[in-house]
Design brief:
Blueprint: E1 4-11, E2 19-26, H1 28-35, H2 42-55, E3 63-66, E4 75-80, E5 87-93, H3 103-110, H4 113-120, E6 128-134, H5 142-149, H6 153-157, E7 159-165, E8 174-176, H7 183-196, E9 200-202, H8 214-218, E10 223-227, H9 249-269
Amino acid sequence: MRQFRVVAFVLCAPLLPAVDVQLRTLDQSVIEQRFGRIQSKLDARADVLRSLFAEAGCATESWDEQRVSGAKLPNLICTLHGSTDRQVVVTAHYDKVSLGQGAIDNWSGASLLASLYESLTAAPRNLTFVFVLTTDEEKGEVGARYFVTHLTKEQRSHVAANVNIDSIGLAGPTYVWASRADPQLSADAVAVAKTLGIPLGAMNVDNVGDSDSHPFVDKKIPVIDFHSLTSATLPILHSKKDEPAALDPVSYYNTYRLLSAFLAFLDAKAN
């Protein structure tokens, strides 16, 4: 049996009334075990992610696989339905480059999505959360672009935000790509981090790469990217050093705690 505890706290974000946040927080051992199931081959990564979501409770009727034109592997999608049509789309790509195992970029993000889903199942939700494991991000955000461009105008109108997770778990704070992030989403993330006592910084990566949030920005959907990169650690990506040993377990678990609470807070605000 997976170990967890249910966390409830009252959080007051800037200019907002206090809200009651409820979520299930998994033990660090669970988060590490899921990361530890890393695979190098892309089809094997997809298989593990399917298993992780099944173990987290994502039932067949909530699971979808979106075939993406030009890609060998699909987008993998699990939907946690809320009481409204308003959606938060949580993205993380599961592909990798040829060098290294893609442990940080981006197995660290992809393998965490099932745990974030499981954490939110602690209580009925107001928002609908759509967890999308995207294919072929390294080839130009192919999976994310396909997902966004194949939403109807009405479907896009229901998307309140995109939360993108890419290259987390390196030693040190979690960072927000501040120059791209929606200001209110950034403020909310800061409020949650302060409440939990988890370090959160701002580190822009405009000139060194892109992410799956870009297609959402193109459609004027509010976004926020979370990562753990600095100028010192950036060379790990797309290199032979991108191996599981690069992960710092404490920083990774702090990022999980922050992200699960952040998503639950967005939901509580929507009440």
